[in-house]
Automatic annotation (TrEMBL):
Signal peptide stretch: none
Highest taxon in the source lineage: Bacteria
Name this polypeptide is given: Metal ABC transporter ATP-binding protein
The UniProt record lists the keyword Nucleotide-binding: yes
Upper classification of the organism: Bacteria, Bacillati, Bacillota, Bacilli, Bacillales
């Protein structure tokens, strides 16, 4: 049986005056590829930040690898690429290699020495996202999609067990979105990375994911992708207004 890596138990959260999430409970098992769907402002990014310990719930509990998030000490087991990662302009003074290497500071500490095989690790991380040819380029000279791949390599360099991505295809042109999801599916299948991503690309991602969670303040559905496929568009409209469309 696969291990539960993430669990939320009855989690509620509000910013100063805005109630955002109510009684959220769900589990993510090792090896899952989960897409979190929901309209703008429905609490998806907030949910990810609670999973990462960047925000604390008002009530309920978050567990990582079977432990309360408060006592969990292996933050390097979780790689995170935030929503606005790919926003470097062309003058930003860092190469692709330097950006990827900076992903190790979480593991080794800011002032400690990098491991001897750091260049090999950088190369391996870049290879797994198909970006090894670009390693000497300036990050700001890459397209949005290429930058996003570099940020995934940066998250991968500490060899995390879970990869959490917040709308990773924003800024990627339509033709490249499918190959981007194919790359994530390869990481999921061949490197056994558990992947959680927030996305609006329901249709493009749907042939790659294993699980879906439908969020709008609460969790309306969480389960296998095959079961999500049986949900009617009327039901989705009922949860979301017209914000999430299934197109086949
Ligand atoms: N730092 C904050 N302070 C106060 N309110 C916030 C803050 N961040 C988000 N909110 C509000 O919380 C609600 C949920 O925001 P969140 O970013 O989690 O939604 P989302 O589903 O990720 O949206 P989107 O798809 O637009 O990125 C929104 O109403 C938003 O305005």
């Amino acid at each position: 049986m696969s291990q539960t890596l993430i669990e939320m138990k009855n989690v509620s959260f509000q910013y100063e005056y805005t109630q955002v999430l109510k009684n959220i409970s769900f589990k993510v098992d090792e090896g899952a590829f989960l897409a979190i769907l929901g309209p703008n402002g429905s609490g998806k990014s907030t949910l990810l930040k609670l999973l990462l310990g960047l925000l604390k719930p008002m009530s309920g509990e978050v567990q990582l690898f079977g432990q309360s998030i408060d006592s969990f000490r292996h933050k390097e087991w979780i790689g995170y690429v935030s929503q606005k990662s790919n926003a470097f302009n062309s003058g930003f003074p860092a190469t692709v290699e330097e950006v990827v290497k900076s992903g190790l500071t979480k593991k080794v500490g800011l002032l400690k020495r990098m491991p001897k095989d750091v260049d090999l690790k950088v190369l391996e991380a870049l290879k797994s996202v198909g970006m090894e040819e670009f390693r000497s380029r300036n990050i700001g000279q890459l397209s949005g999609g290429q930058q996003q791949r570099v940020f995934i390599a940066r998250a991968l360099i500490s060899n995390p067990k879970i990869l959490i991505l917040d709308e990773p295809t924003v800024g990627i042109d339509h033709e490249n979105v499918q190959s981007f999801y194919d790359m994530l599916a390869t990481l999921n299948e061949e490197q056994n990375k558990t992947i959680i991503l927030v996305t609006h690309d329901v249709d493009t991602v749907s042939n790659r994911i294993s699980h879906v969670a439908c969020v709008n303040q609460t969790i309306h559905f969480h389960g296998y992708k095959e079961d999500f496929d049986t949900i009617s568009q009327d039901q989705l409209d009922n949860w979301y207004g017209h914000a999430v469309r299934k197109i086949h």
